[in-house]
């Protein structure tokens, strides 16, 4: 059958799907579909069709007394058709009204089907199966696996753009010439399934010029993929730390990138309908379009704050070594100020052209943050600036940015400004800047390399998935 609409998903295996339905008194039917999993329905079963092939077996719950009675099948079919037609008509009108209110999402291809889900009104640490059960209808194109395979030349290694904890990312091109980036869930990834659902729930509801745009997703057979707009200049780290591309970033362009990242973060924290903490802001997660405009990407680790919630705690610390705020890395506590810390690290990296996660001053065992703090106190900040930047031409503006960056990476969250204040400081809307206190993580232990070999925290490219907060 073509299964009914308005399903609730459960992450259980095929053998447990029936028990999952039987345990719920309101469950009226269930089905298990490879690539999607266990689906449950409560109430009316709407828009059922019989297929000659494919589809799924649909198991319908009936009263025990009905199992042994003979039925008048013609009457049942006639009533079902009449009732079904009425329900379909009502639902069609409702769906049409919703589409009009959302200003007419239009399907551009027969290979794209509407996929809807519910706004995730869950707190920061609700179990994954509960998050899945709260997925409801929100329009998002669902691509067929075959279309994405053709677009990426069967996921040819020559089209591979990168590799992360989620899985590989491939460049693709549709027949109409539209270029895409396809993030493919690795079957061996333990973190990928939760990241996949989290990113679909998050980014499908976000629209901002400094956030990467999600075009759709694929849930086909055992494949799960996210389809994004293609960013021709890839990620910021390729420009900041690549000798050939580094010279393309003059100070004006770097400042535009800093502002763009700040505006994207402000949208996540304050201006979107969801309050989102990114938790993995770093140079490799900032993508650049053809004009080098920044777009924040990778929302697999992001969490939603509900209502008046300002802080949350977790035992599963996720993020990247060198960008995590101290209260998060050490205690599992995160808030908007955690993202502000990461933004401060990123700001100092953009100014200096050096990675925070690979800069070690051997003489004094200083990290990049410690080195910046030392030069700030010595009034010798010129040594920190990337030689590719004309420091003397933009001296006051660069000094202000370093000042703001040091305010962002202060050890205690209460001392850090909000991202809205940061933007006002950068644009000189706030003239007086408080004196920064010593940043967190200024020292680099001499045995850091041995520590990192045992740590689950990554230094740059990999992302931490499960680490118990201390």
Descriptive notes:
Helix content is 33%, strand content 16%. It has 14 helices and 17 strands. β8 (168-173) and β9 form a beta hairpin. α8 packs antiparallel against α10 and α10 packs antiparallel against α12. The two termini are 51 Å apart. The model is unreliable at 104-137 and 446-470 (pLDDT under 50). Keywords: ATP-binding, Kinase, Membrane, Nucleotide-binding, Serine/threonine-protein kinase, Transferase, Transmembrane, Transmembrane helix.
Set down the secondary structure blueprint.
Blueprint (H helix, E strand, L loop, with lengths): L7 E3 L3 H9 L4 E7 L3 E6 L16 E2 L12 H29 L10 E4 L12 H6 L6 E4 L1 H7 L8 E4 L4 E6 L5 E6 L7 H12 L10 E7 L2 E7 L6 H5 L2 H4 L4 H21 L3 E3 L8 E3 L5 E3 L6 E3 L5 E3 L12 H6 L1 E3 H17 L15 H10 L17 H14 L10 H8 L21 H7 L16
Antiparallel strand pairs: 1-3, 2-3, 2-4, 5-6, 7-8, 8-9, 9-11, 10-11, 12-15, 13-14, 16-17
Helix pairs in contact: 8-10, 8-13, 10-12
């Amino acid at each position: 059958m073509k299964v009914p609409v308005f399903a609730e998903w459960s992450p259980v295996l095929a053998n447990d799907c029936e028990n999952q339905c039987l345990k719920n008194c309101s469950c009226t039917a269930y089905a298990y579909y490879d690539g999607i999993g266990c689906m449950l329905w409560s109430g009316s079963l709407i828009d059922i069709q019989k297929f000659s092939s494919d589809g799924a077996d649909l198991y319908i719950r009936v009263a025990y007394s009905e199992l042994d009675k003979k039925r008048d099948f013609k009457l049942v079919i006639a009533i079902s058709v009449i009732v079904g037609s009425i329900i379909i008509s009502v639902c069609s009108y409702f769906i049409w009204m919703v589409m009009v209110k959302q200003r007419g999402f239009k399907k551009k291809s027969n290979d794209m089907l509407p996929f809807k889900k519910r706004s995730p009104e869950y707190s920061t640490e609700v179990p994954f199966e509960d998050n899945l059960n709260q997925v409801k209808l929100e329009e998002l194109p669902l691509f067929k696996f075959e279309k994405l395979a053709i677009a990426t030349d069967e996921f040819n290694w020559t089209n591979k753009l990168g590799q992360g904890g989620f899985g590989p990312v491939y460049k693709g091109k549709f027949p109409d010439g539209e270029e895409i980036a396809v993030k493919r869930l690795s079957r061996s990834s333990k973190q990928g399934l939760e990241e996949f659902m989290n990113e679909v729930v998050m980014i499908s509801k976000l629209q901002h010029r400094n956030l990467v745009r999600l075009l759709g997703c694929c849930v086909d057979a055992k494949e799960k993929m996210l389809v994004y707009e293609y960013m021709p200049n890839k990620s910021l780290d390729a420009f900041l730390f690549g000798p050939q591309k580094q010279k393309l970033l003059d100070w004006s362009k770097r400042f535009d990138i800093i502002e763009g990242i700040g505006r994207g973060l402000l949208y996540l924290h304050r201006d979107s309908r969801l309050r989102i903490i990114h938790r993995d802001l770093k140079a490799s997660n900032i993508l650049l379009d053809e004009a080098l405009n920044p777009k924040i990407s990778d929302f697999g680790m992001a969490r939603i704050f509900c209502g008046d919630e300002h802080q949350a705690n977790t035992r599963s610390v996720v993020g990247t070594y060198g960008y995590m705020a101290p209260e998060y890395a050490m205690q599992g506590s995160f808030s908007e100020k955690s993202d502000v810390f990461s933004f401060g690290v990123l700001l100092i990296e953009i100014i200096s052209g050096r990675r925070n996660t690979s800069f070690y001053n051997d003489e004094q065992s200083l990290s990049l943050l410690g080195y910046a703090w030392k030069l700030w106190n010595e009034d010798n900040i010129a040594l920190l600036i990337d030689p590719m930047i004309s420091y003397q031409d933009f001296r006051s503006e660069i000094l202000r940015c370093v000042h703001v960056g040091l305010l962002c990476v202060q050890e205690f969250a209460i001392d850090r400004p909000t991202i809205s204040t940061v933007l006002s400081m950068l644009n000189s809307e706030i003239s007086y800047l408080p004196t920064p206190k010593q940043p967190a993580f200024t020292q680099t232990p001499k045995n850091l390399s041995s520590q990192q070999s045992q740590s689950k925290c990554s230094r740059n490219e990999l992302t931490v998935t499960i680490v118990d907060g201390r």
